[in-house]
Every structure is written in structure tokens, then in C-alpha cells.
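Good morning,

Attaching, inline, the C-alpha cells for the sequence recovery test we're adding to the shared suite. The designed sequence is right after.
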């Protein structure tokens, strides 16, 4: 009898210890995967010889990173081309944006942009814009956000003096995954000078589609439109680019 009671006590103790260990192992929190930068490098090349002699190259790099309540976006792209030995494409554009979520859909942040366009005689245009934004759609496959805020713009055209002015910025961004391997995106910005709202403003828009060839490599087509209501003399208000190329994800 004593041996039975002793064995029963030992078994109960062993079960208690085992359950305690199992419970502690089950309750241990699973570490969330660390946030990583998602980077895509894009390139395009157009070359003709014979009756025409043209070359056009474009390069781009976009990177983004998301945390629980923050998001960082970085990008730079440029292009250079000639036709019959005459330069017809010469641009560089870059941006950086940081967003901090204030709610499930609302956020605040700041954005900086830089542009150069040798064909439009734009030496540089720099812009800093605090912003408030809101996701009208925030789903796994589809997102649509709008942004607004003040902006400070400093620009210089070739043979002109530097001009700095206060502006407003209204932005919009849409992205939709057509499938596991294809997506479309679209962005637009409207930046009017606050004291010359109707006369002086900038509009920039982009629409693109990409389709994966492999897990990391895709083919893409991008259309870009830039409108400057007050270009320098002998230059047009509108610039349009259609870029076909490839992208590689890091």
C-alpha cells in the first residue's frame, strides 16, 4: 500500500512538471519576422540603327519597408537618349517618403522630391512636403490612398534665377494585384503655387503594369506624364514617356 501511494505521488509530480514545461513552451510568443526592405531595380533599353540612329536607356530603383506603424518609401529613376546624335531624353527624378500610421487607415508623414530635366531646361526642382493621408481602400490585393499638405518648392531653369515659393500638394496612389504574378499601379500629384493657384501648377502622373517571369524577375510597361503650366520659353507644357523594360526584386 505504501509502495502504491509512493508511486502515485511520483507519477502526479511527474505529470505536474511535464504539464508545466509543456505549458511554458506553448505560451512562448512567436517572434514576428523582422521588417525587410523590398527593393526593385528596373532597366529599359531602346536601340535603332539603319534609317534611324537612336538610343534610349532608363534605370530605376525603388525600395520600401513597413513596420507595425511606419512605412518608408524611396525611389530614383533616370533616362538618357539621343536621336540622330541629338539629345532627346535627359531626366533624373528621386523621392523619399516616411509615413506613420495614426489609425488603421489614417497616417501622417513627410515627403521630399528632386527632379532634373535637361530637355525642359530644368536644372533642378526640390520639394519638401509634410502630409496627411488616408487609405480609402486597404485590402490584401488592393490599396488606394489620398494625401494632402503644404509644400515648399525651390526650382531653377537654365539661364533663369532660382525661384522658391509656397505650394500645396495633393496626391493619390492606387495599386492592385491582378494575380499572384501581375499587378497594376497608378499615382498622381497636383502641386499648385498657393498665391497663383490657377496660373502656376505642376501635375505628375504615372501608370504601370508588371508581370512576373520568375519569382524575382518581371517585365513591365510604364507611362509617365508631367505637366508644367509655366515652362520656360520655347518649351512645351507636357512631357510624355512610355517605358518598356524589366525589373528585378532583391
Amino acid at each position: 500500500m505504501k509502495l502504491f501511494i509512493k508511486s502515485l505521488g511520483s507519477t502526479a509530480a511527474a505529470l505536474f512538471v511535464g504539464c508545466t514545461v509543456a505549458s511554458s513552451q506553448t505560451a512562448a510568443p512567436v517572434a514576428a519576422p523582422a521588417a525587410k526592405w523590398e527593393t526593385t531595380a528596373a532597366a529599359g533599353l531602346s536601340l535603332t540603327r539603319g534609317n534611324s540612329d537612336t538610343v534610349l536607356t532608363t534605370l530605376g530603383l525603388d525600395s520600401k519597408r513597413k513596420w507595425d506603424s511606419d512605412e518608408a518609401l524611396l525611389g530614383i529613376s533616370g533616362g538618357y537618349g539621343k536621336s540622330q546624335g541629338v539629345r532627346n531624353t535627359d531626366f533624373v527624378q528621386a523621392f523619399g517618403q516616411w509615413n506613420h500610421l495614426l489609425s488603421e487607415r489614417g497616417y501622417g508623414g513627410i515627403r521630399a522630391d528632386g527632379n532634373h530635366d535637361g530637355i525642359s531646361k530644368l536644372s533642378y526642382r526640390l520639394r519638401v512636403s509634410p502630409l496627411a493621408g488616408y487609405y480609402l481602400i486597404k485590402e490584401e490585393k488592393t490599396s488606394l490612398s489620398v494625401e494632402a499638405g503644404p509644400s515648399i518648392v525651390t526650382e531653377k531653369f537654365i539661364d533663369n534665377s532660382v525661384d522658391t515659393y509656397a505650394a500645396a500638394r495633393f496626391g493619390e496612389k492606387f495599386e492592385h494585384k491582378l494575380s499572384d504574378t501581375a499587378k497594376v499601379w497608378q499615382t498622381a500629384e497636383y502641386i499648385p503655387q498657393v498665391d497663383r493657384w490657377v496660373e502656376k501648377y505642376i501635375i505628375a502622373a504615372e501608370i504601370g503594369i508588371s508581370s512576373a517571369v520568375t519569382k524575382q524577375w518581371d517585365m513591365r510597361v510604364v507611362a509617365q506624364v508631367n505637366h508644367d503650366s509655366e515652362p520656360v520659353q520655347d518649351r512645351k507644357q507636357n512631357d510624355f514617356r512610355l517605358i518598356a523594360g524589366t525589373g528585378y526584386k532583391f
